[in-house]
């Protein structure tokens, strides 16, 4: 437009400067000319233009002179009054045309011609403004529903929102109410701006959310500072990414834990067993005390290994309806005595008709025991009353169980770490930091979730969310016909670890069993072919022939012996082992086990 105006004016009169100011949705200032004007003349002209623009109601941000400055010492023409024509575009003034003539004062005819040029310019400007407005509306319609904030970064870090999401985000960043979004705002835009692909992630204190800011390439090569800035709220996806990373970490940790636990199981089984065995034989008080300490410490180590295996365990939990009310009643009654001693009040009023949850009773029990003993521990340092409240409700096929205590609560800095394995604030020997990690794992395997919240000094609240289950009447297993008793009978012990084999031999002989031992499945098979046995206590993982192969051989050769097996294993995690045990139905003692557990398993075998 400026070029056309200049060409038209050239035909009418000689001029020093032509200034075209266009106002509108995209305010623009175009200055042409200034060819022979020195700085003082320009400044005078600029003042006059600013005044004229203001009078016409146009935004004015100064002139951008089109041409280069004249060389110093160029003649400064006498100040001439500029000719100012308002450009009436559409309903209001769309701009100004200012001409600084260089020759003698223009005559009447010339002025009319300049006015005609201005009128043509106004028409073009009107068309241009309408096009610009249409473009702008189209852009807005396109951008408005986009969920990311689209903004335009102009020079000097000024950020102009181009859609609703951007207005809302900029308002939040400035700490203003979201519905009063700013027209534009100053943001600390880094210089030089990062490469378009890279972005900057930052968290906003006002709404506790995480945003990602990304820049476009320059929109106009002549103005590298003008770019689009895209703001997106990445709180959820970041949370998911963290969860995924955590899950991967847990998996790796799980594998490592399972390896370590497995290695510890065999020696620990011997320590637990021999200390118990010696204790049952010792009479001197001092020796008994020492042996008791060994036995207790070994039991403690055993519990830790059990917990490690629980953290690492990746098996799908059993799925059966579990009566939550009965489960909670049972656990609370276990704690009742302790709670009375420690003056802890318990509120538990299950709502009528609480549906069962679908899950593994044993595992859920473990979760609740972990949570309740944590609450008990916390309540010991409660300032005021000591109260544990257990609440349950159901909604949408889910059951929610909530445990709140009036203990000191969990500091915000700990809240997202308490479910990490080994995170504990308890003193050494008291906490292992595994209780909540196990609980989280179990809940996850149940298709449920566990959350903790805590207000400073207002206790902790743990919420469990579990899928509700259908009520099913469990099918009763037919009673097996009584068979030959095992107690006092002949037992074949199959175990490759010498120490543990010796322990089993001694412990069973002490209980009046007749014990024969074998160091692997092949040796056991020979013994089984040559003599009669009432029970076979066999390890699973052994050299030459393992427990599984031994069992298969027996199934083929002596099927009547197949239900006389008690297995032992240090590796319940192995999927193959688990499938085998489920299929054969034989009892299995996870190492390390107490001798009483072994006797119980044999007694149970005898009563089948
Ligand atoms: P541990 O009990 O062995 O420390 P957990 O995983 O069960 O391991 O718990 C981890 C940590 O979580 C505890 O050490 C304690 O700091 C915190 N915690 C758990 N439950 C509560 C509670 N009810 N009140 C306050 N802090 C708790």
Describe the structure in your own words.
The chain is α+β, with helices and mostly antiparallel strands. The chain contains 15 helices and 22 strands. The strands form five sheets. It has a six-stranded antiparallel sheet. A five-stranded mixed sheet has the order 12-14-15-17-16, with helices on one face. Strands 19-18-20-21-22 form a five-stranded parallel sheet, sandwiched between helices. Strand 18 (490-494), helix 11 and strand 19 (514-518) form a beta-alpha-beta unit. Helix 5 packs antiparallel against helix 6 and helix 5 (235-281) crosses helix 11 (498-510). The longest helix is centred in the middle third of the chain and has 47 residues, at 235-281. It is elongated and about 135 Å long. The structure holds adenosine-5'-diphosphate (ADP). Adenosine-5'-diphosphate is lined by residues 370, 374-375, 378, 405, 407, 409-410, 414, 418, 423-426, 431-437, 460.
Keyphrases for this structure?
608 residues, alpha+beta, 6-stranded antiparallel β-sheet, binds adenosine-5'-diphosphate
What is the radius of gyration?
43 Å
- E-strand count: 22
The main pleated sheet reads as: 6 strands, antiparallel
Helix/strand class: alpha+beta
Average pLDDT: 79
Overall helicity = 40-55%
Strand percent estimate: 15-25%
- Beginning-to-end CA distance, first to last residue: 103 Å
Low-pLDDT runs: 24-31, 64-78, 471-485
Count of helical regions? 15
Query: How would you describe the shape?
Result: elongated
Ligands:
adenosine-5'-diphosphate
Order of strands, main sheet, comes to 7-6-5-10-9-8
